[in-house]
Amino acid sequence: MAMKSTGSLYNQALPYVAMVLMRFGSAGMPIVAKYALNRGMSQHVLVVYRFAIATLVLAPFAIVFDRKVRPKMTLSVFVQIVLLSLLEPAIDQNLYYTGIKYTTATVATALCNVLPAFVFLLAWACRLEKVDVRKVQCQAKILGTIGTVGGAMIMTMFNGPMLTLPWTKINNLSQSTNTDASSIEDPLKGAIMILVGCVCWACFVILQAITLKSYPAELSLTALICFMGTIEGAIVALVMERGNAAAWAIHWDSKLLAAVYSGIICSGVAYYIGAMVIQAKGPVFFSSFNPLTMVIVAIMSSFIFSEIMYLGRVIGAIVIVVGLYMVLWGKSKDQKVSSDSNTSSKEETPISGETQMATTHGTTNQDFVALDLIKVSKHSPQ
């Protein structure tokens, strides 16, 4: 009994731990990418290298570990993979890296926090998310989603008084230099690009949840998305960088670091964790952790770069955390109700052999990402 309870606790905590670790890894991406782009790296080439490296890293693991659970590739699944790679690697990442060239890493990270709102609305529209405004948990999810976006806007738009921290150093000269450098940027243009990219990102999250119903092999799906993203990104880069062969040159410098870091951590590992968490918890649960990236960036920057901390950023971070846990509380209540209803139906209805096999392998039929139990059981390892 003790071992069963420990295993159950581990399975319940795993998605939360995975998402927190994933956000820590993602927090370094805006800083590394901004540094490389400022040193002349093409954003379109960075996208190609990022997903090429992710494909090389993930493909061997997908071949080995998914050989018994990988479903047969169908035309509909292939089309969905092409669309997934078009939405996230090709369109979103090109818009994001182009937008970050026109603005700062902090602003780019903050703007990405509109993702929970976009995903929630799309999931609601696609009937992947059940919303009953009369229920307290649904009200919590709605208010929590608004809170995460509102907190991000507070961090971006409201500075307030400066907080003197022991480990930070105020350098007026560097502040004036940064102000002069930002004058040649176009924050509005960059913000629009990033926001449009977030719309594509939200569509990617929803479509990924749908694709996992018929292709529940997270590692293989991730590798295929990265592979197709490399091809589609290369087409975009060849068009945008035509006649500029030097844009493809890469050396042992920040450009290589940006490509390797983004490819392994942000594309390879993050995409796999994202697919796994979406299958288990749903797209809103996945996207609700996105605001944590901005909080982590703000904290890490104050330590590593001695950046100045403002009261507005602290207030915004608190609002984000409160909104995040409101969404998670609402999701936990929904899953508890779904689990109770599934338990009662099992007691009343005999379980067939195929469904029993799927239950044995731990596959749950959630309202959010409702996997076909019979299809999953046919491809489960014996």
UniProtKB/TrEMBL annotation:
One of its GO terms (molecular function) is transmembrane transporter activity. The chain crosses the membrane at residues 12-33, 45-65, 102-126, 138-158, 191-212, 219-239, 259-278, 285-304, 310-329. It is found in: Membrane. The keyword Transport does not apply. Residues 16-150, 189-328 form the EamA domain. It comes from the Eukaryota. Residues 352-364 have a biased composition (Polar residues). InterPro entries: EamA_dom (IPR000620), EmrE-like (IPR037185), WAT1-related (IPR030184). GO terms for cellular component: membrane. Pfam families: EamA (PF00892). Coiled coil: none annotated. Keywords: Membrane, Transmembrane, Transmembrane helix. It is a multi-pass membrane protein. Residues 335-364 are annotated as: Disordered. Belongs to the drug/metabolite transporter (DMT) superfamily. Plant drug/metabolite exporter (P-DME) (TC 2.A.7.4) family. This is WAT1-related protein. It comes from Hibiscus trionum.
